[in-house]
Amino acid sequence: MRIHVLQHVEFEGPAAIEDWARRSGHAIRRSRLDKGEALPDLAGFDLLVIMGGPMSVNDEESCPWLKEEKALVRSAIENRRSVLGICLGAQMIANAMGARVYRGHEKEIGWFPVSRVTASGAGALFPETFTPLHWHGETFDLPNGAVRLAETDAVPNQAFQLGSAIGLQFHLEATPESVQQLVDNAAHEIESGKPFQQSSQEILSLTPQASTNAQSILYKLLEHIESD
Question: Which one, of 161, 179, 160, 158, lies nearest residue 169 by Cα?
């Protein structure tokens, strides 16, 4: 399987996704869109992975490459290429397919539980409850035809499936190294005393065990995509 990663900043790379790809013998390439690197051709990948980032999908003026990225994502879904969007990537899928992305009522930053909504489709790969890493202030409406897969108390749309695309608002790919990078570069976004935000110290202390648990779900999801 040929995997192509769309990466938006240095500190939000594919992490455990790349580990899985290399162990599984899959080719993995990436485009650093914030550095002006070219998007791949549609024929050049079997799985398109869209990573997170501090920008909004609505920031087309300051990040003009967002328009071309959305067009590629839309084309990939319409042509039934496998697409996996993470955090900003999930919002990218939703927006590319016509849904609204906007600031949520609550930020979610830290290791917080998620509840499965349905066991159909890719939802069958999720436990009834699980605890991934969250790091986002925006949320999205579901695009037409999408099936909601998971929710939290703060943000109802946590995961969805739309044809060949799966969007995850949370980070199953987190590793101790990638979480440290997030903390180093984005800890200023954390507000103390908020119900769905943990301190940097708490996030880092929970990461070794929580990331291992999250990765086991990620690998099932990737194996499902691989065999699809």
Answer: 158
Query: For residues 111 and 204, what is the distance between their CA atoms, to the nearest angstrom?
Result: 10
CA angle in degrees (0–180, nearest 5) for 133-136-139: 120
What's the confidence (pLDDT) of residue 187?
A: 97
pLDDT < 50 stretches in the chain = none
Per the listing, tokens 């999250």 go with 214
Give the Cα separation of 91 and 31 in Å (integer).
Answer: 18
- Sequence-separated (6 or more) residues with CB below 8 Å from residue 126: 114, 116, 149, 150, 159, 217
CA-wise closest residue to 8 among 98, 87, 82: 87
Query: Domain spans of the chain?
Result: 2-227
The structure tokens listed for 21 are: 């790809």
Q: What is the pLDDT of residue 48?
A: 98
Question: Chain-centre distance of CA 102, in angstroms?
Answer: 16
CATH topology of domain 2-227: Rossmann fold (3.40.50)
Residue 44 amino acid letter:
G
For residue 163, the Cα-to-chain-centroid distance in whole angstroms is 17
Q: What is the pLDDT of residue 228?
A: 80
Sole residue written with tokens 């290399």: 22
List helix spans (H) across the chain.
16-23, 65-78, 88-96, 176-186, 200-227
